[in-house]
Amino acid sequence: MALPLPAGIQELQPALADAATALAILAASIITGFLAGRRIRLLLQARVGRDLAVITSRAVSYTIYALGVIAALSQLGVNVNVFLLAGGVAGIVIGFASQTIAANLLSGIFLYLDRPFKQGDPVEINGVGGILHDVSVFSTKIRRWDGVLVRIPNEEVFKSVIEMPSRSLARRIEYRIPLERGDELEKARKAILEELDKHNLVLAEPQPEIYVESLGEYGVLVTVRYWAPSRKWFEAKTSVIDSIRRALEREGIRIAAPRRIVELAETEENRNR
Amino acid sequence: MDAGSGGAPPLGPLEEGSLKVAGNTLIVRRFRGWLEYARLGPDGSLAAKRKLAPGIRLLLASYPPFLLPEQGLFNCVYVRLLEPIVVHQRSVTKVSIEVPYDYAVIAESGDSHVLVDVFPGESGPPKLAVYGDLIEGMLCRFHRSPVDEEPRPGTARMVLHIVNQSDDAASVSRVVLPRSGLNYYHLPGGGVRASDAVMTIRGPGVAEVELEEPPLPRGSMRVPVVQRERRLLEAVPYKPHERLVMRWGF
Lengths: 273, 250
Fold this sequence. Notes:
The structure holds two protein chains of two kinds. By secondary structure, chain A is α+β, with helices and mostly antiparallel strands. Chain A is built from eight helices and eight strands, in the order ααααββββαββαββαα. Chain A has three domains: 10-97, Helix Hairpins, CATH 1.10.287; 116-165, SH3 type barrels (Roll), CATH 2.30.30; 168-250, Alpha-Beta Plaits, CATH 3.30.70. Chain B contains one helix and 20 strands. By secondary structure, chain B is mainly beta. Chain B is elongated, with a radius of gyration of 19 Å. Chain A binds chain B through residues 167-170, 197-206, 227, 229, 231-232, and chain B through 70, 73, 78, 80, 125-131, 134-135, 137-139, 142, 144.
């Protein structure tokens, strides 16, 4: 036979029950938030990268914790409208204050999803060219060709024109070579084509092109265009021009130096000189 | 002895002494039980040097052209036919073409084959070309081949079967061969034979290319796959008869 509870405790019983329920809600929200966060991180990590997976999982966990706290307080009879109102106002204030951060964060998320480039890719963003070092949540880091690490906010990256040369199998390289004598054009064309054909970094197809671009103060300006594998572009650009120069020299074809014809007007002063 | 003077290259075990191959001089000598391998390039400068532990054998092989420094950039051989071939609709045609090879010096230790050195054959500078679109296409080793002629030095003979399954006659001016399944064989009488290729024309501008083991005379030797390439091939699901779809025209 159960003993009757003292009067004071009997009065406290509903309050204790509410407190127990609140504690249960809190515990459930903590467990749920923890498990949901971990699950989301595992799911996202392989798809969108570690940084974004961690941020998303934390956001989900904290939201569940916050909802748990509000539900627990509500169970204890606390008016949660005050919290919701305060939260709303704080949200607006923080939102205004962290507009740039939010923009960078969102841009970072979209860059993760869009994946226009990957680590190690050569890129040019807003005139900054180099190797992509890292894309984090708020910024993109590029190791410039001269070795300097440059940080660009993600919002700027997202809005910029991005050049991704490695996405193309081949890149076109162009030289302009001024020839002194127009009658050596065919000989020069043959010598250059033979040189391009011998060079292993010059692609056979698309085929190289050689044409006269203009006749001017430099003599005959010849344009040489060829394609090289994107990953060997710089090596090709620097080595092929030297091969062409040597081939032209071997054939005795002279590269024109800049020249300008100056005519002196017949004036009294000139006549007296 | 010169392997690049038009005759069959002396492929197989590389013995002590010196050997001229495609303008290079290969020097093998024994020193305190070890083998020393050196290659002098066409300009006479030292291009490669290795020491090999006692018991390791050296092989000179005509190797599919995927091992030069540019390897990793491409996975195919693009053969441009010097004379396009016109074939009837719903017909099968067989022609002989040539495919380039590079010379590989391979260290053989039991079943294991390690690449010691590689250099281009006599087929000229190793050229590359893009087949198809610049973004979605393929970067391949390039070769211009005559049709139905004796293979030139530095090239292996390949039999190309063209199966035109379309309802129109087709003109074939190029064939792209996949890396996987392209094997070379040293023939007993000299010369090098490549896998056979079957090009099935499915429709306008689309064909499938598949490689097959050719009929070989007794005593032929298949060029062993070196470890570096074996690892590369094993990294992707390897199929001995890999198919390649030519969707940017033939």
